[in-house]
């Protein structure tokens, strides 16, 4: 919203109050009156408060607040199988359906693991700087409370062991995948993608679990799904090189995908969430999940 060329506000809650969404009535009125503006002539009361991201007269029939820890693991494993880099990028997302002006406090069992923390404007900085506590009056609905990184992790939940040998115009490939560090929850949506070298003319690949497909631009995709605890997924096959080439000189990098519901691999643990300024006790829900981000295994 612009006032005389200067930004008045960028808060979504205020903008929703000031600017009505288009509908049939507004379109008819714009034709009759010749005015196409759907901007309110009066400012919402929240523009004059210390919490402009929230309406002051919010009412919900059932007071609920949900906190989600969403994490992505970035990892690099070199061709010797050594973990070169492993860190987690995380976001704490909140879905708040609370009446009035609630005051929330979120604390952690181990806040010292967090790096590069960024906050929503609703977070009070002094409680965080003094005690690593997130104190805030939340916006209504879904929003990102904070983002963070957890660096220098020592282990990954799964391992990928590729072996490639090349001679006589072919390349034999064998890949093993398994659970390295059991997170205590099922590891789902496991996949492996790699680019076949341009000098490969054909490929014959098969696996004991999941499906293997050669996509466009010679991209090989091995969709494994959930890793069973009693069976290690494996892929094997032969790559045939172009005529005149004896052996493969450039080996692929494997991109790993996975999803783990109910686990934050950073090790971050929520201690408790306190809610004040409500007449009744709200329902509080918590959920964590981790996905693979830039997860690479070199061969």
From TrEMBL:
Domain MHD, chain residue ranges per copy: 62-298
Gene3D superfamilies noted in UniProt: Mu homology domain, subdomain B
Entries under SUPFAM superfamilies matching the protein: Second domain of Mu2 adaptin subunit (ap50) of ap2 adaptor (SSF49447)
Family annotation (Pfam families): Adap_comp_sub (PF00928)
PROSITE patterns assigned: MHD
Superkingdom: Eukaryota
Record-linked InterPro entries: Adaptor_comp_med_subunit, AP2_Mu_C_sf, MHD
Protein name according to UniProt: MHD domain-containing protein
Species this protein is from: Cuscuta campestris
């Amino acid at each position: 919203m612009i006032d005389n060329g200067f930004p008045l506000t960028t808060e979504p809650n205020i903008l929703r109050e000031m600017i009505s969404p288009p509908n049939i009535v507004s379109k008819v009125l714009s034709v009759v009156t010749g005015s196409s503006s759907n901007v309110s002539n009066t400012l919402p009361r929240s523009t004059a408060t210390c919490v402009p991201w929230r309406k002051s007269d919010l009412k919900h029939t059932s007071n609920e607040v949900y906190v989600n820890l969403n994490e992505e693991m970035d990892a690099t494993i070199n061709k010797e199988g050594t973990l070169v880099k492993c860190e987690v990028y995380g976001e704490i997302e909140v879905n708040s359906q609370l009446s009035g002006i609630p005051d929330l406090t979120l604390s952690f069992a181990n806040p010292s693991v967090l790096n590069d923390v960024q906050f929503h404007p609703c977070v009070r900085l002094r409680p965080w700087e003094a005690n690593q506590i997130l104190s805030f009056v939340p916006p209504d609905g879904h929003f990102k409370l904070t983002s963070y990184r957890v660096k220098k992790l020592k282990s990954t939940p799964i391992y990928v062991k590729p072996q490639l040998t090349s001679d006589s115009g072919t390349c034999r490939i064998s890949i093993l995948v398994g659970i390295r560090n059991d997170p205590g929850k099922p590891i789902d949506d496991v996949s492996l993608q790699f680019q076949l070298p341009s000098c490969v003319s054909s490929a014959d690949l098969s696996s004991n679990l999941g499906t293997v497909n050669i996509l466009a631009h010679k991209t090989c995709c091995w969709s494994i799904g959930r890793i069973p605890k009693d069976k290690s997924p494996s892929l094997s096959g032969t790559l045939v090189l172009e005529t005149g080439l004896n052996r493969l000189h450039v080996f692929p990098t494997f991109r790993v995908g996975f999803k783990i519901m109910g686990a934050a691999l950073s090790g971050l643990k929520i201690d408790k969430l306190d809610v004040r300024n409500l007449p009744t006790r709200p329902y509080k829900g918590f959920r964590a999940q981790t996905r693979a981000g830039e997860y690479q295994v070199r061969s």
